[in-house]
Amino acid sequence: MSVLRRSALRRAATLLSCLLLAAPAWSATSSYADLPGSADHPLVKRFAGSTLVGFKKADWDQALLPLSDRESSDGRSKLLDTRIVEGKLTRLVYLAPLGKTPLEVHRNYESALQAAGLKKLYSCDRDCSKLYFSWTKTADIDAGMAWSKGSIASVNSGTYNVSSPLNYDGRMLVGTLNQGGREVYVLTYTSSAVGEDTRTTATYLEIVEPKAMPTGQVTVDAKALQAGLQAEGKIALYGLFFDTGKADIKPESKAQLDEMAKLLQSQPALKVYIVGHTDNQGSLDANLALSQQRAQAVVAALSGAPYKIDARRLQPRGVANLAPLASNVAEDGRARNRRVELVVQ
């Protein structure tokens, strides 16, 4: 071997030694596992090799989804363009395998969701710090979350608690998927876990499956009925139940009928319209007929035994879906629109 070649090899070995000495030592080890009792949502699977460290599942709850990064001008940094959706809520936080970058993980979720037919409502693909801070101030994304035990290692020899690992340098995607004729909302936010020094990526995944709130759990009592009529001249009731497409009052409506009768008996001079409302499913003519029949059924129930309210004080009217309280696009809005109202004559 020539003197020149031996000299070059010695220089290369010396340079490599210096680089190894200068590199920060990875002296800590990340330690965490899937949160017991947690599970992937069947709609969106985890990035390969990831660990599920944060989890919340609620049969009925509310979520706030960003639609832009515009903030309020009052100094609170609250998001202005949002959509509130209600229904079955699932929140999941994953930590990807060591060395997987936020960009790689985000692009994989993006690709998979687009292939599944995602209709994009909003995305932030770069410079998302402003969005992150406004989002976390506007929506309490950690509310009700359960976290795995453990720590995330830093290249600087420190460790971080595994809970709340999201960071400001992330990317967000918000959209809807059509699943069996219903609209499901999906949000992903992917960032470095706590900071870039962990070399770990965190992903927050939120899925909302809109559905009607479980009803029959709260009845509007006579006192609240009176207060509503005095304040606005009307009040919406959700304690009167009918089978789909039918006008027969179901037995579980008795508690609400009792309170309506109590109000009317305590105020003999009070005259009201009983107004039936529907959602927009079906034709307008059919809904007009159905809403009128339901209003008449309520009048018949109140004027008959055991209440015996003078029927001349009760005027039934059906307005179908002509006076909605919410959009009929999703089931949660349609549930609000299906109602009976008391309106002062």
Automatic annotation (TrEMBL):
**TM stretches of this protein:** none
Q: Where is the OmpA-like domain?
A: 230-345
Q: Which SUPFAM superfamilies match?
A: OmpA-like (SSF103088)
Subcellular localization: Cell outer membrane
Q: Which UniProt keywords apply?
A: Cell outer membrane, Membrane, Signal
Q: Which residues form the signal peptide?
A: 1-27
**UniProt keyword annotation of Glycoprotein present:** no
One GO cellular component term noted in the UniProt record for this chain: cell outer membrane
Query: What superkingdom heads the lineage?
Result: Bacteria
Task: Name the PROSITE patterns on file.
Answer: OMPA_2
Q: What PANTHER family does UniProt report for this protein, alphabetically?
A: LIPOPROTEIN YIAD-RELATED, STATOR ELEMENT OF FLAGELLAR MOTOR COMPLEX
Q: What is this protein called?
A: DUF4892 domain-containing protein
Organism classification: Bacteria, Pseudomonadati, Pseudomonadota, Betaproteobacteria, Burkholderiales
